[in-house]
Amino acid sequence: MPGAFDFDVIVVGGGHAGCEAAAAAARTGANTALITHKLSTIGEMSCNPAIGGLGKGHLVREIDALDGLMGRMADQSGIQFRLLNRSKGPAVWGPRAQIDRKLYREAMQSELADYGNLTLVEDGVEDLIVEGGKAGGVVGQTGKRYRASAVVITTGTFLKGVIHRGEERIEAGRIGEKPAIGLSDRLYAMDLPMGRLKTGTPARLDGKTIDWSQLELQPADDEPTPFSFASERIGVPQISCGITFTNPETHKVIADNIHRSAVYSGAIAGRGPRYCPSIEDKVHRFASKDRHQVFLEPEGLDDNTVYPNGISTSLPTETQEAFIRTIVGLENVRIIQPGYAIEYDYVDPRALTHGLQVKSMPGLFLAGQINGTTGYEEAGAQGLVAGLNAARLVRGEPAAAFDRAEAYIGVLIDDLITHGVSEPYRMFTSRAEYRLALRADNADQRLTNKGIDLGVVGSARAKMFHVKHQSLESGRQLLKSLSLTPNEASKLGWKVNQDGQRRSAWDYLAYPDISLDQIIAAFPEAGGLTERVRRQLAIEATYAGYLERQKADVEQLRRDENLQIPEDLNYSAVGGLSNEVRSKLEAVRPATLGHAARIEGVTPGALVSLLAHVKRRQPERAAG
Amino acid sequence: MPGPASYTGEDTAELYLHGGAAVIEHALDAICSFEDTRLAEAGEFTRRAFENGKLDLVEAEGVADLIDAETRAQKHLALDQLDGRLSRQYEVWRSSLLNALALLEVSIDFPDEDDAPDETREPVARTLREMEASLEKALADDSVGERIRDGFHIAIVGPPNAGKSSLLNKLARREAAIVSDIPGTTRDVVEVRLKIGGQIAWVADTAGLREAADVIEAEGVRRAQQRAASADLRIQVRAADDRTDFSECGEDDLLVVNKIDLAGENAKWPDSAMVISAITGDGIRELERIIANIICAKAGSVGAPLITRRRHRLALESALFHVKQASDLITRGGGAELVAEDVRLASRQLSGLIGEIGVEEILGAVFSSFCIGK
């Protein structure tokens, strides 16, 4: 029946991007299908069994603030929670956890099996249905057609994926899985800009054959910090990870065989991440170091598989075994599955909008590793944005985007679509200009309201948020209403400026040498605030002065972000642009003036020209 | 001027100042000392004008070129016009900031790495202290101030005993430099402030360029060469003789043949050279007129560099503020993220001089110095 659709939104792929995309679309009320070739691998962690960290933990909190899944699933399956950077300020605390792979997969699968508006379909997607230049659904393995108004592709590293191990070459997406040929042919035929990347993974070890008694152990935090704002506490038993080191003997084995490493033999053209070098790279580039740290991370409570974090490699299997067995504690280890490097094509994300829609193919959205990123968290964040926007497109609503001053999600997507990638893109807090504002602790305060407006936050979450928001607000008001003169403060032993100025409890919170407890003691009225509210307000007060100073900056950013540049702008009609600037603008086709300003090489003069041109077009459009 | 009948459409005030650079300099000083006052960003007035509907497309595009030209000129001036010492200084500041940022960011973003130092306070504090001292020194440097105040430097150069000091004395109308018949009398740079054609100029007499007889003269020659290289105008002086040689002069140099009163019959020189006698005064008036013309022609472009230098000074002051703040935070045990914030702001303040320090560059420094990666 022409014009009839099976679904509003189809999500292809059941990884971290796919799960968030499908759930986000479904939460907005769109009739959504998640199609993947194997339902049993939904929520699989194909690389290291950990979630969070610096920047990444921030992303998980943001996904959670928008009522996404990753945070809650991790809280149900985390077996070693650690809050990184505890000794530094709260803006750079990074929640992180080792995850039990099986528990995570099970949690995700049971969550999605019972998710409103969501249908799970087991089928291999072979092709995309394109009608009138728009994406209109997908074709399954047996030729079955699934029709939808928007399609989100989250297929990870399947584009021309090649696994390298020593001299071996295996075409695959992930070990043991066939790459999807039909769908990739379709994407290649669309003539999108593509690039090639590589990444690697270490061997998996049998934990029963590790001599743990020789190893230093790293325990979980005494009090686990959950990812989700909705999680009260962590119920999963906590374990320790082992720490060991490579040694000169290890390095000798590697150096002697380095010509057999796929990376060093020249077999790999794709660019690998600088922050995740193979052990060959480490030994080669940092030859003066006589040891490198290796974390031995158990993959689950009842799983003996251990992930040796720090020794990813593409050496031949026998060399892997030889060098691993030189490491303390691993002398008799059995390798369950050798490590490998994987090379794959990605779509240059500059072909996408801020909503992650392919500019040249309305209705088609891309999220996750296919866009040149790495990491579950980066994938999940993109998935959420793509799913949300696919659903909005179906309903004829304008695309939703997050800016750099409100979310790491905004930083992530803006970086991708502005600069493209030259190595798999990973989030770091140093990428955020407004790092002090974009904290893990306030992700809900930054984003949940917006999520409610966008319809992507469910009612239970919204209610929880309003309660917390209200109690924070009244706590803030209370602390601002209580005050002391400098004289009174100095009687308490506080060092303050004797300028006769009354200061509020809120002001005193910002003093690094006055503790929260001292303040509560000085202002008994504040004793009624819950521990959670007190802590949150103390963090806010710490950064309040800095954020005040950033205000003008953020306002300027928002003004520029509000100046939209039409996507079909003819840049050769814009006078005053050099050829160089023009070709850069044409490559990215920035969405806003602010976006244009962030493209490397775009000058202040060029921005004035662009502004002039865009402003002139607007009244014409309104008139016409 | 009340809006909307102004260039930007907003309420504006324009100051028309008489006199030279010093007046402008003081006026800028006074204005910038108000709170909530800053120099406009590149293209800011034009942008406001456009946003308020005061410019049409063609006008705005015309101004766009000018804005870029000015932005380029400002950086160029910062790096090239001042002597090499300062541009090397910019390089040092840049690498100090990059180094401090890399150390701070590695401790923040890679807390779980064996090779990444968890505590980078000490080296960062050291770097910041050094930077603070050097920014303070640069800001207190009077020679920079002098350059800002006048903007026009003339160097008299040439071989020993060409009569350079006599020419200076003639122009100065007093015995500013010691004159003798002994080649190599002038050892150091002698500088005189003169008013030529209504403009203030600094005229420097320099040691004669030759193989030096001793270390003191050698130093004099080195200084002469440096001054000549940084001058806005070089007056190349040669004694008139039968092989007056201007072969090593620059295209824009003013060629002067001196000692015309002593010239023999076979003396010859290029047609483009001015002919004078610093002793009798022949040709001096004509020389002054030509110098004045050159200064006036260049004075048209003196306004912009002045703002530029004011901009640089403000940038240095603001960077110094943030470096001090960061330094202070480190001493008081403030969080690495707060220290990093001030160092980031300092580097942003200096970006007009040293170029932006982008996150990719910082990460590049991190990954090349530390073995990061699990």
- Name the CATH homologous superfamily of the largest domain in chain A: FAD/NAD(P)-binding domain
Please give the count of helices of chain A. 19
Distance between the termini of chain A: 37 Å
- Structural class determined from secondary elements of chain B: alpha/beta
Number of strands of chain B: 6
Kindly provide the radius of gyration of chain A, computed on alpha-carbon positions and rounded to a whole number of angstroms.
26 Å
Into how many domains do the coordinates of chain A divide? 4
Beta percentage of chain A is 15-25%
CATH class descriptor of the largest domain in chain B = Mainly Alpha
Point out poorly predicted stretches of chain B: 142-149, 300-305
User: Architecture of the largest domain in chain B, CATH level 2?
Assistant: Up-down Bundle
Instruction: Characterize the quaternary organization of these chains.
Output: heterodimer
* Molecular shape of chain A: globular
Greatest interface (CB-CB under 8 A), with counts per chain: A-B, 51 and 50 residues
Strand order of the biggest β-sheet of chain B: 2-3-1-4-5-6
Number of strands of chain A: 22
Task: Count up the helices of chain B.
Answer: 13
What features would you describe in this structure?
The complex is a heterodimer of chains A (624) and B (374). With 624 residues, chain A is an alpha+beta fold. Chain A folds into 4 domains: 7-198 and 344-457, FAD/NAD(P)-binding domain, CATH 3.50.50; 204-341, Elongation Factor Tu (Ef-tu), domain 3, CATH 2.40.30.260; 460-548, tRNA uridine 5-carboxymethylaminomethyl modification enzyme MnmG/GidA (Arc Repressor Mutant, subunit A, Orthogonal Bundle); 563-623, Orthogonal Bundle (DNA polymerase, domain 1), CATH 1.10.150. In chain A, 36% of the residues lie in helices and 18% in strands. Chain A contains 19 helices and 22 strands. In chain A, the strands form 5 sheets. In chain A, strands 1, 2, 6, 7, 8, 9 and 20 form a 7-stranded mixed beta sheet that branches. In chain A, helix 1 (16-27) links the parallel strand 1 (7-12) and strand 2. Chain A is globular, with a radius of gyration of 26 Å. The model of chain A is unreliable at 620-624 (pLDDT under 50). By secondary structure, chain B is an alpha/beta fold. Chain B folds into 2 domains: 40-148 and 317-374, Up-down Bundle (Four Helix Bundle (Hemerythrin (Met), subunit A)), CATH 1.20.120; 152-299, 3-Layer(aba) Sandwich (Rossmann fold), CATH 3.40.50. Chain B is 53% helix and 9% strand. Chain B has a 6-stranded mixed beta sheet with strand order 2-3-1-4-5-6, with helices on both faces. In chain B, a hairpin with a 2-residue loop joins strand 2 and strand 3. The longest helix of chain B is centred in the C-terminal third of the chain and has 29 residues, at 303-331. Chain B is globular and about 85 Å long. Mean pLDDT of chain B is 79; it is low at 142-149 and 300-305.
